[in-house]
């Protein structure tokens, strides 16, 4: 992996912002991801993210923290003990430069410490990449929860992106086992990352996975673009 995502946010942090990230998926054309958006403050965050940050409590693990905007708010504004983890060494460097006291390069699947809140935002529910991997993924997350702990995560139901037939069915290409399974590609400054798997999961499917591994799941809120925030406990 070239870690173009990490390089882009490090460039922004170091005052070398000249262009944005470009992304595309197996079902959508190239789109622009503005780097300033990754450095947004609380007031600039979508309502679902704001709600998740208000619900966070106790010892928090921010999984896939990116530039660290969520962890920074919880640490500085809410006074919580937050650990930010990401697979990108450059993203973690940015988190440290921004003042996050506990930030490290780590895969959540290699984590064993326990927390009161696991935070998986910006479609964090889908970071396992494939639907068949979700039960094992959430079963592991369950082992990281203190008694009374919670997982706060979001995703979107992307069925709206497919053509609907008169009978109500959808024309979904047989790319994977589930219509929310995509290949995601990142491009930055003329370089292209190797495509990786990403998953958008509808709430009912997430709820079924949660129940299968012994977690309760509640729909906290729904956004305006088929997105939602869920709490697993």
UniProtKB/TrEMBL annotation:
Can you tell me where the transmembrane regions are? none
Q: What processes does the entry annotate via GO biological process terms?
A: methylation
Task: Tell me one GO molecular function of this protein.
Answer: methyltransferase activity
What stretch or stretches form a coiled coil here? none
The record's annotation in Gene3D superfamilies points to: Vaccinia Virus protein VP39
Q: Which UniProt keywords apply?
A: Methyltransferase, Transferase
Tell me the protein's name.
Methyltransferase domain-containing protein
Species of origin: Capnocytophaga bilenii
